[in-house]
Fold this protein.
Amino acid sequence: MRKGIEAMRKNRKKKSGNVILLLLALFCVGIGIWLAASENAPIRSNKLDERTAQAAASPQTEETGYTPKENHVVEPKVTDTPAPVSLKWRKKTTKLKVGKTYQFKVSIKNGNAEKIHWSVSNKKIATISAKGVLKGKKKGTVTVRAKYQKASVSCRVKIAETKRKKIIGIDPGHQQTGNAALEPMGPGSSTRKAKVAGGTSGTSTRIPEYQLTMTVAKSLKKELETRGYGVVMTRTKNNVNISNKERAEKINKSGADICVRLHADGGGSSARGASGLYPSSQNPYVGSLSSKSYKLSQSILKKYCAATGIKNRGSVKRDDLTGTNWSKVPVIVLEMGFMTNSAEDQYMASKKGQKAMVQGIADGIDAYYK
């Protein structure tokens, strides 16, 4: 019996131990579950916080489309302010001649130079191209303006008349063959004279007057052109048939300012010197040209005789010369020397003499315009 009781006790102890072991196991499992729950709880909380933050930042809720004012954040707008544009003259002028052009230039900061707009205040006085080239049209003053957006620069320009170069008419006297046909000595004149006389010739050189005057005229033309004059000649070769009246008319139509008719004198073997023939103030055709023609004669004779050493015979009034009486500009006949004088004939035929003759005539024309 005791053995049975002891056996029962042992069994109880065994069961109790098993129960205790089971309870310990359950306790440990519970502790493990609790610990796991403790670790996972913050993660869920963080995810919830993230979702809450996203919802707050969202412009509207998914369900209602309503955006809570207290949670809406308005970002400030950022505006780029452009740098200010400025213009500055790089090349300009305040004077320009009629018919001339000038290129204006400006420097631009913070802009496109190709889009600069050019303008002038009066297009009748001057015009300007899209690239800033100004051209004078007539006398006056204009304002040139360069503009880009709100920036601009301006400049006043005076347009002046271009000083026209003087045009000199040269009539090489005579021609290879004279023309005895008659023509009026002057406009409306009843007096008629031969259209072109034959002229004289060198007593020593045998050079005809028409050849001498042509040679001197061509050299004079070159010299005057180098000095800036324009030159018109009534003839450029010897074999022509142009009357004295026609020569004067040609000079008149050419726009010449004065006319110098080149001739050489004939007479006795001892006669010498140069002279200038001009119309008197009583000339019924060109009396109004007397004063200026006299000035032209005196100016040329003074310089011509100084350059050549030929005697100055002075200015002589002549109202019976057809080529003079049909002129509309100051005119003289320059008798360069006597071809019937052996010394002067040879001098006028020489290169040295002709160079001095041309120099003297050109100097005289210069003096006339001073």
Summary: The two ends are 174 Å apart (CA to CA). The helical segments are 2-57, 209-226, 244-254, 290-308, 322-325, 342-349, 351-368.
